[in-house]
Write a structure and sequence with these properties.
With 105 residues, the protein is mainly alpha-helical. It has two domains: 39 residues, no CATH class; 51 residues. Helix content is 65%, strand content 0%. The chain is built from four helices and no strands. Helix 3 packs antiparallel against helix 4. The longest helix has 23 residues. It is rod-shaped. The relative contact order is 0.08.
Length: 105
């Protein structure tokens, strides 16, 4: 028994309603209990698809930028201003992604 939520609610649903709720729960990434509570309490449920792929790609871009930055510092390349600009933009993207994941956007 959940000590923080000792009260239970039973609902009845048609097969179609049940399947739709089940799909929405899976899509949300929440537990069924948390999903239904958020719906009932009018709390925001944010579903953003493709985040893991985006994070992986951003990590690859960051890795490439680090390699280029190292080459600039070693004198093997001459594009330090462009790299600084790209690094600033990448930091902004990371901050936006973090806010999005946390549901703040």
């Amino acid at each position: 028994m959940n000590r923080k939520r000792p009260k239970g609610i039973i609902i009845r649903a048609s097969e179609q309603e049940f399947e739709k709720i089940k799909k929405n729960v899976e899509k949300s990434g929440l537990t069924q209990n948390e999903y239904l509570l958020r719906c009932a309490l009018n709390k925001k449920i944010t579903v953003v698809e493709g985040i893991p792929e985006l994070v992986l790609e951003l990590k690859r871009i960051g890795n490439n930028l680090n390699q280029l930055t190292k080459a600039v510092h070693e004198g093997k390349a001459n594009c330090s201003q462009e790299l600084d600009d790209i690094n600033k933009e990448l930091k902004v993207v990371w901050q936006l992604l973090r806010r999005l994941i946390q549901g703040q956007v």
